[in-house]
Write a structure and sequence with these properties.
The chain is an all-beta fold and 116 residues long. It is built from no helices and eleven strands.
Amino acid sequence: QVQLVESGGALVQPGGSLKLTCVASGIARFSVYAMAWYRQAPGKQRELVASILNNIWATYKDSVKGRFTISRDNAKNTVYLSMNNLKPEDTAVYYCNAGVSESVYWGQGTQVTVSS
């Protein structure tokens, strides 16, 4: 059974930094999965924040480019999202996503709140 467990969410002041971690279990070949971070703010649809296929190719939502970095450690079945210069509009529940072929998995989410 595939499980994705996120951690690292917190309350942080504007301009602050956080690093989210997602650990995957029950996946035989983690390296072949495309990994992504999504977020969902209250009253809004879930949106793609960043995705990574390997440690060379990654994509980002325009509003987070230059501030967020997605990375992965295939040996640890882990994907990270480093977030710098956080803004109030980054407040949301952040979800980890894993996908390969027709299989897609989601974590339970971790809350990030950016407020003074």
